[in-house]
Amino acid sequence: MRFDHPASQIVLQDYIHAVTDAEARVDCLTKRIEELAPQWSMTPFVEAVQAMRGVAFIAAVTVVAEVSDFSRFDNPRQLMGFLGLVPSEHSSGAIIRRGGITKAGNALARRALIEGAWTYRMQARVSRKLHDRNERLPQAIRDIAWKAQVRLCARYRRLSAAGKPKVIVTTAIAREMVGFLWAITRQVQLGPAV
Q1: What DSSP character marks residue 95?
Q2: Coil, helix or strand at residue 56
Q3: Distance separating alpha carbons of residues 55 and 117, to the nearest angstrom
Q4: Which residues sit opposite 101 in a β-bridge?
Q5: How far is 119 from 173, CA to CA, in rounded Å?
Q6: What average pLDDT values come out for the chain (194 residues) when binned by 10 residues?
Q7: Quick one: pLDDT at residue 193?
Q8: Beta-bridge partner residues of 96
């Protein structure tokens, strides 16, 4: 790209360098996390939640690190509330009005899940990367992840066809993803016997 004024060219080149530097920093941090992950006690959870479509390594590490102890949540709704993915409510007497999500919970994990929820706009399928991530996982975890993918892809299409805004659809999908993540972490806690 060329500009008439040299100052414009300098600014463009500065932007290009900033993006390149940021990408290099992200790559470096990702490699460091990958090196440290095997020694982390939560690695089995990180590997298991990667069975879900839209939850690759960094998203899995983020969610597991931010939630920490999944066993403290007796049901998926509690985990959804912790992540701020439940609708707000304004009640007065018998009148109940629901609003947008509360955003009262953990913003980092919520953001990672909402970004991952965008992948469910495509048809359900197992990509090569997802297949490779799931290869070593127990069948019970793979079954939960496939059930989630089929359900969430169909739900994304239904909500979109109903005219819901994409942001609302994606947030609803992220909320349901949490339920499946909770079920997967239960399998990890219970171990292979169950």
Answers
A1: E
A2: coil
A3: 9
A4: 87
A5: 10
A6: 87 95 97 96 96 97 95 95 88 82 87 96 95 95 97 97 95 96 92 52
A7: 47
A8: 91
